[in-house]
Design a protein that fits this description.
The complex is a heterodimer of chains A (about 90) and B (about 280). Chain A has about 90 residues and is an alpha+beta fold. Chain A has three helices and four strands; from the N terminus they run E-H-E-E-H-E-H. Chain A has a single domain, classed as 2-Layer Sandwich (Alpha-Beta Plaits), CATH 3.30.70. The N and C termini of chain A lie far apart (about 30 Å). Classes of the chains: A alpha+beta (about 90), B alpha/beta (about 280). Chains A and B meet through helix 1 and helix 2 of A and helix 2, helix 7 and helix 9 of B.
């Protein structure tokens, strides 16, 4: 199998900051370590996840952060090939 | 999955699955690190994947933290009295056999006060999908020891550690006649959603135990730490064994680090459902 032909999907992370309760699940289990805590806090006083510096294109749209989030505060969308070049 | 695609609007603060939830009630009341939100989330995904109309789904819950689940899903839902989620759901399932009735409740509600209803609903093979969220204690009332608390685990009513033999829920469900029995944790999100979807497709009594962290009551009393630490225990010690036949050996020992926790889809058989 020629792995160089395999295309890894690229994702974009969307965070609904006001729902986050800082449980750490998304940051702990991201396979490519895309996320880190923000310095800011939301209305309830929790630090919410943001995309870490230098990791803007690292998300592979595996959706694990979305599926495990108990607060439905994070999801990813797939970046199509046409737009991924411009990011 | 058209429901999900319709609702994606980048930049707007809604989640793709919000249409199946009462998003105006979010963020929910559950503690940071609690696993019940993940179970509600997984149930919503299973509804979307089931291909059935939302009107064809009914969610029934009992009392306790897990009983809040019915209040957050945007299908017909009922928050019944303590332990009586199953008889209530039985009434719906028998009167309207075309509906897909799911009971989401906790270990205390389903196996302690509702234990009798559980074994008889399984014996009759009522067409229900039961999601039992097992957090090993009575979380809402302050961490008392319940029928699923592992031996040695501490609770407010057992400061020296629990001494009673806990229920082995997959073994109980299989022995009483459930046609689909599974155990997953909130870390096994995709496997759990597939199990819920499978139970929605089956006609009969399906039982899914989900291990969920309770950082506020169980985690603090047992020095496990926050929810992420308990999920890390699941990651380190869970062993997937689909179709396991030795269900009597599937006891959970969270305290002894050398013992693994067996998860998987254990039973998948067919049997004549009750009054269907």
């Amino acid at each position: 199998m020629d792995l160089s032909l395999a295309q890894v999907p690229q994702g974009r992370v969307h965070v609904i900051a006001e729902r986050c309760k800082q449980c750490n699940f998304c940051i702990d289990y991201c396979p490519t370590d895309v996320l880190m805590y923000s310095d800011d806090i939301n209305a309830k006083g929790y630090h919410y996840p943001i995309v870490a510096a230098g990791k803007e294109t690292a998300c592979i749209h595996c959706r694990f952060c979305d599926l495990i989030c108990p607060e439905l505060a994070i999801y990813t969308t797939e970046v199509t090939t046409e737009t991924s070049g411009g990011d | 999955m058209s429901v999900i695609e319709e609702t994606i609007q980048p930049g707007v603060n809604i989640h793709p699955i919000d249409k199946l939830l009462r998003a105006d009630r979010l963020p929910h009341i559950l503690c940071p690190g609690c696993g019940i939100g993940t179970v509600i989330h997984g149930y919503a995904h299973a509804i979307a994947a089931s291909g059935l109309d939302e009107d064809q789904h009914v969610c029934v819950s009992g009392i306790g933290c897990s009983g809040r689940a019915a209040g957050y899903v945007n299908v017909d839902s009922y928050h019944s009295t303590h332990g009586r989620a199953l008889p209530f759901a039985l009434g719906i399932a028998v009167h309207k056999p075309e509906l897909n009735v799911t009971v989401i409740s906790g270990d205390g509600d389903l196996t302690a006060i509702g234990g009798n209803h559980l074994i008889h609903a399984a014996r009759r093979n009522v067409n229900l999908n039961v999601i039992c969220i097992n957090n090993f204690n009575y979380g809402m009332t302050g961490g008392q020891v319940g029928p699923t608390t592992p031996i040695g685990a501490k609770g407010t009513t057992a400061p020296q550690g629990a001494v009673e033999q806990p229920f082995n829920l997959p073994y109980l469900a299989k022995a009483t006649g459930a046609i689909f029995v599974a155990r997953w944790t909130i870390l096994h999100v995709r496997e759990f959603q597939d199990a819920v979807l499978r139970s929605m497709q089956k006609k009969g009594f399906c039982f899914i135990e989900v291990l969920a962290p309770c950082p506020t009551s169980f985690g603090r009393a047992n020095k496990i730490g926050d929810g992420a630490h308990e999920v890390e225990i699941y990651r380190e010690r869970c062993r997937v064994e689909n179709g396991a036949t030795n269900l009597e050996e599937l006891d959970i020992d969270l305290i002894d680090e050398s013992k693994s926790i067996t998860v998987g889809n254990f039973v998948d058989v067919e049997r004549e459902p009750f009054l269907a």
